[in-house]
Amino acid sequence: MGLHRFITVFLSSLLVRLIFFFGTSALQPINILEERRFKWNIVSRCATGGKGDDPDATAPTRRDALAVAATVLLSHTAPASAASIPDEQTYIQRFPTLFDPIIGRSRRRTIRTPLGSGVWALEQSLALGPLETPLRCVVVRLRDGSLWVHAPLAPTEEFFAMVEACGDREGRVTHVVVPSYALEHKVFAGDALQRWPKAQLWTSPGQFSFPIRRVSDKTVWGRNVDGVLGTSDRDSTSNQPPWTDEIQYETLAAGTFNIGGVPTTFYETAFFHVPSRSLIVTDAVCRIPVDPPPLNDVDRLLLVSKRSTADPAPLDTQEARTIGWEKTALLVSYFFPEHEEIDPTAPLGTVTWTPGWHDNFKSLSNRLLVPPVVRTLLYANDPGEVQNWVDRVSKRWDFVRIIPAHYEAPITAGPDDLRLAFRFLEDETMDAFPKKDLERGLKPIADLVLRKPRI
């Protein structure tokens, strides 16, 4: 069983998760499909596993399940009214994703933080149903005044204007970098290249599409790729970018998985900005903040903060927002964390948080770590190769801060801190996550992906 099994399990767990949050009302948006003349009789087919009311219908498929999950996500996001959304914060999602808005028109606010030495962090929020976490793009002003853009964000006018304000008078973007296989870090690269058509496109190796494998660069990016990054900027066999005297790189082969019957290696490229001594990563490490991020939607935080899904919405207080953030971090990190329990005494689908979840959040937050999903599902595939990358990065670069694509940034940290975050590679019992946080969500999926027998 390969990673395609993980995708199926993840989508199923996502649907269950949404039903847990919203109760049986989560199925009501299915009616929207009929109103929009979708021809699938999805509700009865998914409920009965058969043909439902349509004698010509076939058994439910994975596409049906995805459609159900998508409509639930679409209907339970909480966008501002059209009149309150500034035009510069709207955009169109051109490719379908698992994230809000799935596809079509939506909005994202952008904030920009100067980090000094010609480096800026631009941040938006990434939403999956009621769960919302920070998503970051890094912009570097090169010596010639032009801009290097790492993992572009949603293509709002606000985002584009903030990027261009980092450069010279013309706001020249000369390089767009796709650092990872992960969809949320590359899905907007094509839009960025439409805005900056003279920019060169550099990607980490191993870019792929799924379920359709052979898709042209023009379809994905809108044009051909200018260069694929190698193992390192020191690699003389690769076509190296012109900016490696200012920004060096080392690429991690995170693991090889069977996706649709094709062995596929996941790569992430880390960058070192020499003038600022900054290590720029995507998903390799993070630090989950204690307080809610500034862009997190208050209504979502209050929804997740409830002790029970049967409870009414709480009053908007800083305490409620913080509780919502702590539970959000646990749900995003573990899928089904330890202290989120089905309540057998309440109506079907009711979930209650039991005491102890706050302690589990404290063990997860405010420290440099490899995210549980990345550590459990990816890095366990080939820990030797991951250790090789950690050694290369920590021995080569004397960085003083890390700028990841998620959660908090910048993080004051050096090579010793990075090695400490990866000490589990030598002994998986070191710095272990709570066993019960893992066992209901990540561990069963990891067992499928990595073909480990359940004990």
Report low-confidence residues grouped into runs of 5 or more.
1-82
Question: Largest sheet at a glance?
Answer: 7 strands, mixed
- Distance between the ends: 18 Å
The proportion of strand residues reads: 15-25%
- Estimate the global geometry from the Cα principal axes: globular
State the helix count: 15
Chain-averaged pLDDT: 83
SSE topology:
Layout: H1 3-22, H2 30-35, H3 42-48, H4 62-76, E1 90-93, E2 104-107, E3 111-116, E4 119-128, E5 131-141, E6 147-150, H5 157-164, E7 173-178, H6 189-195, E8 200-203, H7 217-221, E9 227-228, E10 247-259, E11 262-273, E12 278-280, H8 298-305, H9 318-334, E13 340-342, E14 351-353, H10 357-364, H11 372-379, H12 383-396, E15 401-403, E16 411-412, H13 415-421, H14 435-439, H15 442-450
Parallel strand pairs: 6-7, 7-8, 8-9, 12-15
Antiparallel strand pairs: 1-2, 3-4, 4-5, 5-6, 10-11, 11-12, 13-14, 15-16
Structural write-up:
With 455 residues, this protein is an alpha/beta fold. Helix content is 32%, strand content 20%. The strands form four sheets. It has a seven-stranded mixed β-sheet with strand order 3-4-5-6-7-8-9, with helices on both faces. The radius of gyration is 22 Å and the shape is globular. Residues 1-82 have low confidence and may be disordered.
What's a quick, concise take on this entry?
The chain has helices at residues 3-22, 30-35, 42-48, 62-76, 157-164, 189-195, 217-221, 298-305, 318-334, 357-364, 372-379, 383-396, 415-421, 435-439, 442-450; strands at residues 90-93, 104-107, 111-116, 119-128, 131-141, 147-150, 173-178, 200-203, 227-228, 247-259, 262-273, 278-280, 340-342, 351-353, 401-403, 411-412.
